[in-house]
Structures are given as C-alpha cells and as structure tokens.
Amino acid sequence: MQKLIFIFIFLVPFSLKAETRLNFVGGINSASQEATSTLFQNIVASAKTYMAYGITADFKPASKSKGLQLGVSTGLLYVESGANQRFSVAGVTFNMDAKLPYIQVPLTLELWLSNIFSLGLGAYHEWGYQKMSQKGTQTFMGVTTTIDSASSFGEQNYETRSFGYMGKLQAQVPLGKKLRFVAIAIYQKNFLDISTHNHTTAKNINMMALGGFGLTL
Predict the structure, then answer these.
(1) Average pLDDT for the chain
(2) pTM of the predicted protein model
(3) Chain center to CA of 87
C-alpha cells in the first residue's frame, strides 16, 4: 500500500502538467521461463504463446517541442505467463504447458523520441490471478497419460506475488485530434526466483506484442 501511495503522490503533480494518453491494448505474449533444478532432470522451459491485454496511461509533457522529452507510464494489465515445461523425475517424463495468469501494474520512465515514438524502462508488480493451469502428458515405462489440472499458485510451488524489470518500445500514430493507433512491444523478466520449491528456481520471461487504440484526455 505504501508503494501505491508513493506512486500516486509522484504521478498526480506530474500529470497536472502533462498530456494524458489512455490506451486500450491487447495481443500476444511469448512466455518462457528461466528454470533450474537439482531434483528434476533434463529440465527445459521453452516459449509458449499466451494472451495479454489491458489499459496503459501515458503522462507525456504537453510541450510541442520536437526535442527529446521525459514522461511516465503506468497501467493495469492481464498477462498470461508460463512455458512449455519438459523434465523427468523418478523415471517419469513430463511434457506440459504451464499457464500462470497475473494482474500487473507496470511503471516506466518514458523517453519520447518524438510525438509518436517512445522508449520505456522500469519495473512491474504482479499478483497471481485465480488459478494456474497445467496441460500435457506424463510417460512412465512407455505408458503415456494425460495431464489437465488447475490449482493455486501455492499448490504448484509458485509465489503469488512478484516483481520484475521491463523495457518497452511504443508507437502512437494519430488517427484524429484525440484518437491514436497504439503499438507496444514489451520485454519483462522477474527480479527474483518465483519458485517456492527447495530444489528448483524459476523466473518468468515475457515478450509481448500489443496493439489497440488510445485517447488523448
């Protein structure tokens, strides 16, 4: 709560002197994980395509100067993280698609290269949303069975809340006086290990491509 209050105090006076752009975006997330384990053998976590969508808000200097300008961006995003996980333990081989849904609040410092393009660098805070799912197969002694389960983050040894750093490239093309077409590319990675398993580490990596429309308020 203290962090949110700090962000609010920081953004309000800035936004009073800024042009506010509210964007409604959606698209895909190429989700993968950086995973290691001393228990599971031959562990591989490769990319899987999931969904991402939400609202972003850009507070851009209202000046019409053509030079470089600094702004701030935040938002509220629904992001499906995870990976295709392949590993073996005790003679059993697993091949599963793990989906971890999160609600994210990003906060980036934006360098506006022009009135259209900006580069962002910052961090995000995320909370596990509802249940994560695992779908795939397990094979033991040549016999393959199907896995299709949904359980809480804690039951699958994942933190329900985490932080990460992010980079962003966006373009906002005017379609009228107030309306814009918005395209955003985002890279994210967790700061710390999100696995609560004693013998395993994991960090989510997200590469999002989002598009939509924005309004100048």
Answers:
(1) 91
(2) 0.88
(3) 25
